[in-house]
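Board notes, transcribed. Complex of a protein with guanosine-5'-diphosphate.
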Amino acid sequence: MFESLKKKFSGTINKISDEVSSKEEEEATRKKEEKVKDLPKEEKEEKVKSDLKLKDEDKQVKALSSEDKDKETSRFSFLRRKSDSDDASGDKEQKDLADSKEKTEEPSKEVKDKIKDKSDSKKEDEEEPSGLFTFATHKTISEKDVDDILFELELALLEGDVAMEVADQIVQSVKEDLVGRKIKRRSDLADYTREALKNAISEILVVEGPNLEELVQKAKKTGEPLKIMFVGVNGTGKTTTISKIADYYVKEGYTPVIAASDTFRAGAIEQISHHAENVGVKIIRHQKGADPAAVAYDAVEHARARNKELVLIDTAGRMQTNVNLMDEMKKIQRVVKPDLAIFVGDALTGNDAVEQARKFNDAVGVDGIILTKADADAKGGAALSIGHVINKPILFLGVGQGYGDIMEFHPDWMVEQVLGD
Ligand code: GDP
Ligand code: GDP
C-alpha cells in the first residue's frame, strides 16, 4: 500500500541528507584550503585594517612608536587621497607616494605583537570549525540547501496524484520546519527531514470529523437509528463498501439495515440484496425506478420499529455532474434527514476521486470519506489529499474484496505507513 509515496519520501530524506552534507563538506574543504594558503598575509592585512579602526585612537597614538607615527601619517594620506579623489583633482604624485608608503610600511614591534596575539587567539577560534567538524558543530540548514530537493519532491507528489494544494502545503511545512535548524551530526539531517515530513503529513491528515462509534452508541441508547447515506460514482465499490460496513457493525454487536435506494441502475437492487444476504442483514427494497427517498424512508421506519441502530442507505452511483441525480440525493436528505453522508471513492482513481469528493461535498455536504481499493493503490495520492481538500476525514479504507477487508483509518497509521523506518 502506498509504496510509491513511501519511496518518494525516503528519496527526499536521502537526497537532503546527501546534498546538505556534500555541500557542507565542499565548503569546509574550500575554507580549509584557503585558510592554509592565505593565512599569514590575510591575517596581517586584516589586523592592520582593524587596528586602524580602533575607536580609542588617542590611546593608540600614544602607544605608537615613531615608526608608527609614519603609519598614522599614512592613515591621513589615505584620508587625503580619498578626499582628493572625491573632488577629482587628486595630486597624483602625492597619491602614489602615499600608496607606496602604505604598501611598504611595516607595523611596529608592538603592533606586530598585538597582531600575533590576536591572530593566535583567532587561530584558536577558527581552528575548531574546520573540515567535517564545521558541519558537526556549526551547520544551520538554509533555504538554498533544501529548495531544489523540495521542488523535486513537489513534482513527484503531483505526479503521484497528490492534490496541488496538498503538495504545496507539504513542501512549505517541511521547509519551515527544516530551515534554520542546527545540525550536529550528519544523521540529524535524515532524522529532521523525516520528522518534518511526518509533521507535514499529520497536519494534512488530521481532520476533525464525526465519531462513528459514539454516534452508533448514542443511537442504541436513544432508540433513534443512526442514518448514513452513501454517495459516490458507479464502480468505485460503493455497494461492496456498504456491505463491509454492515458486516463490521454486525461484528461490533449492532443490527444494521440497508436501504436499496439505488433504484436507477439496472441490477443495483439485486446486487446489494445479494451482499446483504451474504453478511446477514435485512434489506429494504422497492422496484427499479421507485422513489429512492421512499425506500430510505421505509428503511428508517423499519429500523425504528425493530430497534435497529443503523440505517445504511445506498444511492444511485452517478457522475457528480448529473444534476437530476444530485437532486434525487437532496430529496433523500429532505425526507429522511440522514445524520451523515459518506463519500465513497476509489483510491486508484487518484485526482478524480478527489474531484468527485469536492463535487459531492458541494452538492450534498459530505461528513466523511471511505476510500476503496487502498490495497491496490501504490500512489497514495488520493489517500493523502482527499480529506484535506474537502476538510472531512477519511473514516475507513477498503483493503480488499472480502467483507472483512475494511479498516478504520487513523492518520498516525498512514504516517507510519509512508514514513516509518
Ligand atoms: P459499485 O458499483 O460502486 O457499487 O461497486 P462495487 O461495490 O460493485 O465494486 C466494484 C468492484 O470493486 C468489485 O469487483 C469489488 O469487489 C471491488 N472492490 C470494492 N472495494 C474494494 C477494495 O477495497 N479493494 C479491492 N481490491 N477491490 C474492491
Ligand atoms: P417532495 O417529493 O420533494 O415533495 O417530498 P415529499 O415530502 O412529498 O416526499 C418525498 C418522498 O418520500 C415521496 O416521494 C415519498 O415516496 C416518500 N415518502 C414520504 N413520506 C412517506 C411515507 O410515509 N412512507 C413512504 N414509504 N414513503 C414516504
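DSSP finds 17 helices and ten strands in the chain. The first strand starts at residue 139 and ends at 140.
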